[in-house]
């Protein structure tokens, strides 16, 4: 049975390890330049960076276990989509280790995150998903998310379209 707990600073190394493993497994093929991928991973999942993020009260990290850790999520509270869009909980990350997708964990974790966000007075849950990730699109649409708008993620060698999806709570 999947359980979710709020991560602490002591979990930075665990999140780093899971972040590198899950991101490489699910998204490495989308990067043209391996050096840019490695720079991105170091920026996102370096232990000191994670320790700082884990102490930021505007964000929250969660670890999902069954019974050992299988994935994680990161949210930021009360974030605006843009100057004109809704304000709500931004789901930055919902990642699972290789072999741990398609088991219902994502729906369970997302449901719990939505419950926590709603208990904090949030009325919207939103996220960005890569255009090149059709499985994630299908998953989020099944969970009640709708397309709000598009934006770009750029590196020196490529651009990727991100779809911003939103769900009322």
UniProtKB/TrEMBL annotation:
Pfam families: Acetyltransf_1 (PF00583). It comes from the Bacteria. Residues 2-169 form the N-acetyltransferase domain. Keywords: Acyltransferase, Ribonucleoprotein, Ribosomal protein, Transferase. Signal peptide: none annotated. CDD domains: NAT_SF. GO terms for cellular component: ribosome. The keyword Transmembrane helix does not apply. The keyword Transferase applies. PANTHER family: AMINOALKYLPHOSPHONATE N-ACETYLTRANSFERASE-RELATED-RELATED (PTHR43877). This is Ribosomal protein S18 acetylase RimI. It comes from Kosakonia oryziphila.
